[in-house]
Amino acid sequence: MLLPTSDAYQRFGLEDWRQQVQPVPTYWTPGAGREANLKAAADADAAIGFADFLLAESGTITAATTPGQGRAFHFLPTHYLAIIPASRIVARSRQAADWYDGEIKAGRLQTSNINFITGRLTRGILRWC
């Protein structure tokens, strides 16, 4: 399992869970080098990451690339689970795009890209937080 390097575990109350995950997960590691992180993502059967928004109109999730969760983190593992706060479920892509625009202009978000990830959901659990 691949997990991001992030402080979001605390915000979601998942710090205890993270400490108990077995077998010990691999982490996307800032500074480990592109090749090491790409290999970790390609070898991972599953990744659990933090996304920014869920777009109700299409079921699309959005995630900005960060040092602790690079581009390949969301795409290379066989399975991917995104954790998104209920407050970030929005009706349309315009709402997410406006938020990203404001965060980037204010200097609070520095990213090389923003992923809009959509596809067929074969099985899923939605828990409101």
Radius of gyration from CA coordinates: 15 Å
Mean pLDDT, rounded to whole units? 90
List low-pLDDT spans. Answer: 122-129
Helix content: 25-40%
What's the layout of helices and strands?
Blueprint: E1 2-3, H1 8-11, H2 15-20, E2 26-27, H3 34-43, E3 46-50, E4 53-55, E5 60-64, E6 79-83, E7 89-90, H4 93-105, E8 114-117
Parallel strand pairs: 1-2, 3-6, 4-7
Antiparallel strand pairs: 4-5, 5-8
Which short descriptors sum up this protein?
four-stranded mixed sheet; globular; 129 residues; disordered C terminus; alpha/beta
Question: Could you provide a short overview of the structure?
Answer:
By secondary structure, the chain is of the alpha/beta class.
Give a structural overview.
By secondary structure, the protein is an alpha/beta fold. The protein has one domain. Helices cover 26% and strands 22% of the residues. The chain contains 4 helices and 8 strands. It has a 4-stranded mixed beta sheet with strand order 7-4-5-8. A two-stranded parallel ribbon has the order 1-2. Strands 3-6 form a two-stranded parallel ribbon. The radius of gyration is 15 Å and the shape is globular. The model is unreliable at 122-129 (pLDDT under 50).
